[in-house]
Design brief:
Elements lengths: L17 H14 L2 H14 L6 H12 L5 H8 L13 E2 L13 H13 L1 H6 L7 E5 L6 H12 L3 E5 H6 L5 H12 L5 E5 L3 H9 L2 H16 L6 E6 L7 H6 L2 E4 L5 H11 L7 H9 L6 H18 L5 H10 L15 H15 L3 H7 L4 H7 L2
Helix pairs in contact: 1-2, 2-3, 9-11, 10-11, 13-14, 13-15, 14-18, 16-17, 18-19
The chain binds adenosine-5'-triphosphate and magnesium ion.
Magnesium ion (MG) binds next to helix 7.
């Protein structure tokens, strides 16, 4: 007869049914129910009670005492809202940023105020002050909107879930409003942040489909979602095209921040971090930042990383002349990587001319970039 004690650790085990136990264990693990999983492991370990099975038993018991670091993502993935037809998730859980956030003067302070407001939402609501934790980031591609959202989420200690509105819309004819509602239901009452990327996709949708009834439903669902946010929910929206964003959507965002192409100071900080690993000399850094006014943060990062990769592969130091040539040949969002071979004299001459015309650099600064003397530059420019 089976003896049952009140203490679960001293339960006497029923005979082990290997196949069934394995299936049960797998099912429990995949359901993300950590408590049941630990109970199941403890149950199984009790079956290994023979003297030669002590080690397995100890190992299993040790596993049940470890922190559950890997189990959590599984549990949250389970609950992600999915498209009813395709079963694909409507949002993408994001990871922590790997790089620092370098900011324009003034923007840091603005972000800190927003973080403070978002993190005191309950206190504000208890004081009867209406809160709506929404932020709209707008500006050209590659200026760091997603990067800012990642850092905000990290500072707030909350997971960020990215929704590409264009994919939500394009994959669904008729179900878009339902899906948008599912996104807001998901964020309601959880500690996750909803990041609605490419908000302008709604405007494009209007042009493409000419189904005004459906567009109205979709916009209304979005507006309702934003209006009915709980006091602790946070929604961040982003767009490259604020001009075509529906004014009603625009108004729903309490905070909005324009993220422009980086200023000369920020460009300098970006080159210093991404290209020189924070060890740049002042003069070439200044010259690089002057001649890269057409580039975004992301462009500067890409050119820097391409340059560093080449330096590692070839074992040669970074050649600023090649970096400069790549900068001048690049356009926003369409970068050119530095060439592998050294520049010819005529290429140097052309570069020196362009730098003088475009950047308004002094000859000594052009010399810094092209690793030559002011006298040589003066000769090239004649
Ligand atoms: N202010 C910044 N400081 C440091 N790195 C940055 C900054 N802005 C952008 N970056 C780097 O550039 C990458 C691309 O930027 P990000 O994706 O955030 O731009 P975006 O504005 O969201 O662009 P898009 O409009 O195309 O979505 C980031 O992952 C980060 O590595
Ligand atoms: Mg982005």
């Amino acid at each position: 007869m089976k003896q049952i004690s009140r203490n679960p650790d001293t339960l006497v085990a029923e005979p082990l049914a290997p196949g069934k136990d394995l299936v049960d264990l797998a099912r429990t693990a995949l359901s993300g129910d950590n408590t049941s999983l630990l109970r199941k492991l403890a149950d199984i370990s009790r079956h290994y009670s023979g003297p030669d099975q002590q080690e397995v038993r100890d190992q299993l018991m040790r596993l049940t005492k470890k922190p559950l670091v890997n189990l959590r993502p599984l549990q949250s993935a389970e609950r992600l809202p999915v498209d009813a037809k395709t079963r694909t998730p409507l949002l993408q859980p994001d990871s922590d940023p790997r790089e620092p956030l370098l900011l324009e003067d003034g923007l840091e302070e603005e972000l800190l105020l927003i973080i403070e407001e978002f993190s005191h939402a309950e206190k504000l609501a208890a004081a009867g002050l209406e809160t709506n934790n929404t932020l709209l980031l707008y500006g050209p591609p590659g200026t760091g909107k997603t990067h800012i959202a990642r850092h905000l989420a990290q500072r707030l200690g909350r997971p960020l879930n990215i929704v590409r509105l264009d994919s939500v819309i394009s994959s669904l004819l008729g179900d878009t409003a339902k899906n948008i509602r599912a996104l807001f239901d998901f964020v309601d009452g959880t500690n996750t942040i909803l990041f609605l990327d490419e908000l302008d996709a709604l405007a494009k949708f209007r042009d493409d489909r000419k189904e005004l009834g459906e567009l109205k439903r979709v916009v209304n669902t979005l507006l309702q979602g934003l209006d009915n946010l709980g006091p602790t929910s946070i929604v961040i929206g982003a767009t490259n095209h604020p001009d075509i964003l529906d004014p009603a959507i625009w108004r729903r965002f309490t905070h909005n921040i324009e993220v422009e192409l980086p200023s000369q100071e920020l460009r300098s900080a970006l080159w210093n971090y991404y290209l020189f690993s924070d060890e740049a000399e002042k003069r070439p850094l200044q010259a690089l930042s002057v001649c890269s006014s057409h580039l975004s943060c992301s462009d500067i990062r890409e050119i820097s990383l391409a340059t560093k990769r080449r330096a590692v592969i070839t074992g040669k130091p970074i050649e600023l002349a090649q970096v400069t040539a790549a900068i001048l040949a690049s356009e926003t969002g369409k970068i050119r990587r530095p060439k592998a071979s050294a520049l010819t004299t005529s290429e140097m001459e052309e570069l020196a001319k362009q730098l003088q015309q475009r950047g308004g650099l002094r000859q000594v600064e052009i010399g810094d970039l092209l690793s030559t003397t002011r006298q040589h530059i003066s000769k090239l420019l004649k």
